[in-house]
Amino acid sequence: MPIRRRIALVLFAAVLSFDLAILAAPSKIELTLSAAISLKAALDEITRVYAMANPGLAILANYGPSGTLELQIEQGAPVDIYIAAAPGPMEALAAKGLLLKGTQRELLRNEIVLIVPQNSATKTSSIQDLARPDVKQIALGEPATVPAGQYAKQVLTHFGIYDAVRAKAILAKDVRQVLTYVETGNVDAGIVYKTDALASRRVKIVAEAPADSHAPVIYPVAIVKDTKNPVAARRFLTFLTSPQAAAVFRKFGFTPAD
């Protein structure tokens, strides 16, 4: 056999072997998780632990305001699992038939607190104090898209000071931006989730909103109906409700739902 023909056959066999190896190799499954920004620290740890135990799986996390994430899903964004910081955005998706039946459930609970900069000399010690004239600027989440802002509005309305506070409110795109405004001293106070306040050394909690002043802070979770990987999504959802995940959530200040 001529040398050129022998070399050609060897190269063809090598290419064919490489192609077959690619076809035989298991493809990596990717899950896209859209979740409320207040969950970032806890979910970063949970997804890292889960991915290490499941090397054939990659979890892509997309964090943001719950209302914005809801709209993305409604507009066809390729999301497998959604976790909101309030029932409203989840119920909106359910009403449009965009969730996989039987997967929607309560995952976590949180609390609403009033914070000020750690080095603040303010005498603010109650939510009612926000109406005082010496409290000039207050950071709140945008109530139209940010659940933390909706809860804040409920609290302020409960105390009859919403209009007074709204006049000097700085509205933020999400609860983490509220936290940043307070951390940097750009505002006198802000209303956030307790978990966000606990995660920062640059703010201090001066008051907790009474439970009867706002709707329960519930984080629901569900699998999106158009998921391309329903089996992998169900397995990860099961892990999110496991004792191992619950321990991580508790570490960051959340209360796992019963």
Q: What letter string, H or E per element, gives the SSE order?
A: HEHEHEHEEEHHEHEHEEHHE
**CATH topology (fold) name of the largest domain:** D-Maltodextrin-Binding Protein, domain 2
Structural class: alpha/beta
Oligomeric status: single chain
CATH superfamily membership of the largest domain: Periplasmic binding protein-like II
Domains (count): 2
Low-confidence stretches: 7-26
CATH C-level label of the largest domain? Alpha Beta
Strand order of the largest sheet: 2-1-3-10-4-11
Q: What general outline do the C-alpha atoms trace?
A: elongated
Radius of gyration: 24 Å
Total DSSP helices: 10
Q: What is the average of the pLDDT values?
A: 91
CATH architecture title of the largest domain: 3-Layer(aba) Sandwich
- The helical percent reads 40-55%
Number of strands: 11
Sheet-strand content, in percent, reads 15-25%
End-to-end Cα distance: 75 Å
Description:
There is one protein chain. By secondary structure, the protein is of the alpha/beta class. The protein has two domains: 29-109 and 218-256, D-Maltodextrin-Binding Protein, domain 2, CATH 3.40.190.10; 112-208, D-Maltodextrin-Binding Protein, domain 2. 41% of the residues lie in helices and 23% in strands. It contains ten helices and eleven strands. It has helices at residues 3-24, 40-53, 66-74, 87-95, 147-158, 162-166, 175-183, 194-198, 230-240, 243-251; strands spanning 29-36, 57-64, 81-83, 105-110, 112-117, 138-141, 169-172, 189-193, 203-208, 217-223, 255-256. The protein has a six-stranded mixed sheet with strand order 2-1-3-10-4-11. Strands 7-6-8-5-9 form a five-stranded mixed sheet. Helix 2 (40-53) links the parallel strand 1 and strand 2. The model is unreliable at 7-26 (pLDDT under 50).
